[in-house]
């Protein structure tokens, strides 16, 4: 799969920002999804109570993941499912390939699954000559373009209908008009044949239900139902943290997930699949495999800063809310997952702080992601923890280290600080025009390339303070006696208890 | 090859059980518990929806009205039919309106009672047959209309619930482009939780292999956010409420 151009977030973002269609499409789509969520949550009401319940259920499950995984596996096996465990991505791909080889499969048809992107399952199948076809319309388009998804919910957000018509025309062997109905109609016919031919259906899982060993899939097109109905063998890839304890808990997830993702009350299809077809059933898979994937997830367990990351239900609401994602789009992020969740999840799963060090900096820490999150994951705090770890492990540039040392020295002494301000006031004279510094060189370039820095005023705040203090004191009306004595008694009380505030 | 060699599956099973101990043991370790994981059932004080929600209830008529509103808003068609006697005529009319040439239905007495074979003898009619799975599936893939009787409906989300069995193929509500779902009014619930509660009670024993919630016609917005109906599943979806 072709990687986005550029090795740093900045380079990739610069490429993205030059693509006018992409910039507008990302803005339009995220706005639409965000407004959809806003309307749906307002209509449903009591959203904060639902969010809190969602957080409680997810946090509880993760805290007892060992118990619930064993329970899930026992029940799935009792229904005739073959369960497998993949500590790493390559193990998951190996197991899936082994099953496909044994089946002498010629083709696999897939529904949307983020974990399969992590595992690079298409490449693994293609490597042994098995055709692997994405059946979600958006995923099918980007598979033809040989690109990774740029949004969790709408993977082909960055492609326009002309580009899509070109891709599908090549596949059709005739020119298709750039009309949504014609393009979708072609995909329906083409993929219908693929569903009927495929030896194996491969799905992801939004949730696994521990009490019955069932998997649950949310979707709008019906392709995941196809994949789990028509082929004789089904393989499901599931992240090990996808569990919820009971069907009752699914009501909460079904309330939070579609509303947060697209603003729907429920996706068109929500399917609970419990084992392969029963003996008398006429459809559904005859053989069912579930591959449970760790791939870095267990590294978050027991880590107080990052365990909550496993609560994520993959709705994409944080992408739509994020001012950074909304500008630069999904391909500016380095891994499978983009936006705020990707910025934290990618380095957390890979545990290579050094390699992904720049992604944690691509955030203004505004907290919009936390506000949007239906299970209240504090992503903005986690970005700070990531930055912190980067510094602790020494992955900072020599320039940054030197600057911080200088800053420390300066701030430790008021005399030095005063002198530095004086020096700045004199030194800036060469650069200031109309009260601003506009020059784009030197250590300030990162700032001045896009903004002007206001010049240091001729008198600093500290120099003005004695005068300001006198003015404020003179303009305030005297405090009423009752209030004054109350304040004094509070202060006295604090002194007695020894508290600082 | 459809069925795997038992020795292949047995070998994978053995590997899986060995791996399970390490895999879950590792999780238990990370969570600060030793051994192969916690074997005691944890207290789950936050099970299901918030308490206030479980008291939410709509009247019989409100449920029907709410369901119909939601189903229409999702792009589906819905009609209320006074009784089973009238239903046959309504289904016949819908099939004719959409120019359907063929039908497939769940193998249930209520649907046989529609007597479509007599009403529309010029159409090809088929009944789902779990005994003849490949033929049933192939037929469903090239049939115009699928007719199902739902297990439940949920007013608040505008959803139908269909489950799989020998008589009720999953394909019938999925492969044909025209879906006609029959909803007896007494099966209409207010909340999703009412259906979930029942599924939870059957967990571990009597659950059907497939439980499908359907909330309108198949849709996608993957091409420039332009809504497309009927991408893989049925593009025309009728919910006929009986009673």
TrEMBL record, chain A:
<keyword id="KW-0249">Electron transport</keyword>
<keyword id="KW-0411">Iron-sulfur</keyword>
<dbReference type="GO" id="GO:0051539">
    <property type="term" value="F:4 iron, 4 sulfur cluster binding"/>
</dbReference>
<dbReference type="InterPro" id="IPR003741">
    <property type="entry name" value="LUD_dom"/>
</dbReference>
<dbReference type="Pfam" id="PF02589">
    <property type="entry name" value="LUD_dom"/>
</dbReference>
<keyword id="KW-0479">Metal-binding</keyword>
<keyword id="KW-0677">Repeat</keyword>
<keyword id="KW-0004">4Fe-4S</keyword>
<keyword id="KW-0408">Iron</keyword>
<dbReference type="InterPro" id="IPR024185">
    <property type="entry name" value="FTHF_cligase-like_sf"/>
</dbReference>
<dbReference type="InterPro" id="IPR024569">
    <property type="entry name" value="LutB_C"/>
</dbReference>
<dbReference type="InterPro" id="IPR004452">
    <property type="entry name" value="LutB/LldF"/>
</dbReference>
<dbReference type="InterPro" id="IPR037171">
    <property type="entry name" value="NagB/RpiA_transferase-like"/>
</dbReference>
<dbReference type="GO" id="GO:0046872">
    <property type="term" value="F:metal ion binding"/>
</dbReference>
<dbReference type="Pfam" id="PF11870">
    <property type="entry name" value="LutB_C"/>
</dbReference>
<dbReference type="InterPro" id="IPR017896">
    <property type="entry name" value="4Fe4S_Fe-S-bd"/>
</dbReference>
<feature type="domain" description="4Fe-4S ferredoxin-type">
    <location>
        <begin position="302"/>
        <end position="333"/>
    </location>
</feature>
<dbReference type="InterPro" id="IPR017900">
    <property type="entry name" value="4Fe4S_Fe_S_CS"/>
</dbReference>
<dbReference type="Pfam" id="PF13183">
    <property type="entry name" value="Fer4_8"/>
</dbReference>
<dbReference type="InterPro" id="IPR009051">
    <property type="entry name" value="Helical_ferredxn"/>
</dbReference>
<protein>
    <submittedName>
        <fullName>L-lactate dehydrogenase complex protein LldF</fullName>
    </submittedName>
</protein>
<keyword id="KW-0813">Transport</keyword>
UniProtKB/TrEMBL annotation, chain B:
<dbReference type="InterPro" id="IPR024185">
    <property type="entry name" value="FTHF_cligase-like_sf"/>
</dbReference>
<protein>
    <submittedName>
        <fullName>L-lactate dehydrogenase complex protein LldG</fullName>
    </submittedName>
</protein>
<dbReference type="Pfam" id="PF02589">
    <property type="entry name" value="LUD_dom"/>
</dbReference>
<feature type="domain" description="LUD">
    <location>
        <begin position="64"/>
        <end position="242"/>
    </location>
</feature>
<dbReference type="InterPro" id="IPR003741">
    <property type="entry name" value="LUD_dom"/>
</dbReference>
<dbReference type="InterPro" id="IPR037171">
    <property type="entry name" value="NagB/RpiA_transferase-like"/>
</dbReference>
């Amino acid at each position: 799969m072709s990687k986005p151009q550029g090795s740093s977030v900045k380079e990739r973002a610069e490429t993205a920002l030059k693509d006018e269609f992409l910039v507008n499409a990302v803005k339009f789509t995220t706005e639409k999804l965000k407004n959809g969520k806003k309307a749906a949550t307002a209509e449903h009401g009591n959203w904060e109570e639902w969010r809190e319940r969602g957080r409680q259920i997810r946090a509880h499950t993760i805290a007892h993941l060992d118990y619930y995984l064993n329970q899930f596996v026992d029940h799935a096996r009792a229904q005739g499912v073959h369960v497998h465990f993949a500590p790493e991505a390559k193990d998951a791909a190996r197991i899936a390939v082994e099953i496909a080889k044994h089946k002498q499969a010629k083709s696999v048809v897939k529904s949307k699954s983020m974990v399969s992107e992590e595992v690079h399952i298409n490449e693994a199948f293609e490597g042994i000559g098995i055709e692997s076809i994405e059946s979600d319309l958006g995923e099918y388009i980007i598979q033809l373009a040989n690109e990774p998804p740029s949004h969790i919910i709408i993977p082909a957000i960055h492609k326009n209908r002309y580009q899509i018509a070109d891709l599908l025309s090549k596949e059709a062997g005739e020119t298709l008009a750039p009309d949504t109905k014609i393009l979708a109609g072609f995909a329906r016919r083409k993929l219908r044949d693929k569903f009927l031919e495929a030896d194996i259906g491969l799905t992801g899982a939004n949730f696994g239900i521990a009490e019955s060993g069932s998997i649950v899939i949310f979707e709008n097109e019906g392709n995941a139902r196809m994949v789990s109905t028509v082929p004789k063998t089904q393989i499901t890839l599931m992240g090990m943290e996808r569990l919820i304890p009971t069907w009752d808990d699914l009501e909460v997830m079904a309330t939070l997930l579609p509303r947060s993702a697209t603003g729907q009350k429920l996706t068109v299809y929500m399917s609970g699949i419990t084992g392969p077809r029963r003996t008398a059933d006429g459809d559904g898979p005859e053989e069912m495999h579930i591959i449970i994937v760790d791939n870095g997830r267990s590294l978050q367990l027991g880590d107080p800063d990052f365990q909550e990351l496993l609560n994520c239900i993959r709705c994409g609401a944080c992408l739509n809310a994020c001012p950074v994602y909304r500008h630069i789009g999904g391909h500016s992020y380095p891994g499978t997952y983009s936006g705020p969740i990707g910025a934290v999840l990618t380095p957390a799963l890979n545990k290579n702080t050094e390699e992904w060090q720049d992604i944690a900096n691509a955030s203004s820490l505004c907290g919009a992601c936390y506000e949007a999150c239906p299970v209240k994951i504090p992503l903005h705090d986690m970005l700070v923890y990531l930055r912190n770890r980067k510094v602790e492990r020494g992955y900072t540039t020599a320039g940054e280290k030197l600057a911080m040392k200088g800053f420390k020295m300066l701030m430790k002494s008021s005399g030095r600080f005063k002198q530095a301000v004086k020096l700045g006031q004199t030194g800036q004279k060469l650069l200031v025009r109309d009260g601003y510094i506009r020059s784009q060189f030197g250590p300030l370039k990162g700032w001045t390339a896009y903004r002007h820095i206001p010049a240091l005023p001729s008198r600093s705040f500290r120099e003005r303070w004695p005068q300001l203090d006198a003015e404020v004191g003179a303009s305030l009306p005297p405090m009423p006696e009752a209030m004054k004595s109350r304040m004094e008694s509070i202060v006295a009380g604090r002194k007695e208890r020894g508290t600082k505030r | 090859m459809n069925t795997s060699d038992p020795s292949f599956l047995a070998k994978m099973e053995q590997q899986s059980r060995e791996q399970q101990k390490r895999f879950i043991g590792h999780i238990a370790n990370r969570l600060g518990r030793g051994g192969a994981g916690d074997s005691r059932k944890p207290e789950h004080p936050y099970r299901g929806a918030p308490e206030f929600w479980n008291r939410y209830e709509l009247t019989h008529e409100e449920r029907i009205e709410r369901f119909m509103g939601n189903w229409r808003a999702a792009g589906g068609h819905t009609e209320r039919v006074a009784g089973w006697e009238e239903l046959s005529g309504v289904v016949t009319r819908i099939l004719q309106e959409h120019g359907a040439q063929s039908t497939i239905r769940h193998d249930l007495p209520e649907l046989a009672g529609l007597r479509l074979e007599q009403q529309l003898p010029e159409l090809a009619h088929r009944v789902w047959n779990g005994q003849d799975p490949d033929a049933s599936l192939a037929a469903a893939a090239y049939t115009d209309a699928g007719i199902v009787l739902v297990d439940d409906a949920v007013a608040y989300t505008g959803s139908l619930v269909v489950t799989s069995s020998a008589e009720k193929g999953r394909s019938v509500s999925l492969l044909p482009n025209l879906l006609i779902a029959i909803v007896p009014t007494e099966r209409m619930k207010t909340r999703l939780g009412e259906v979930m509660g029942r599924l939870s009670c059957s967990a571990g024993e009597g659950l059907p292999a497939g439980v499908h919630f359907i909330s309108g016609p198949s849709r996608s917005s993957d091409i420039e956010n332009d809504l497309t109906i009927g991408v893989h599943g049925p593009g025309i979806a009728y919910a006929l409420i009986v009673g």
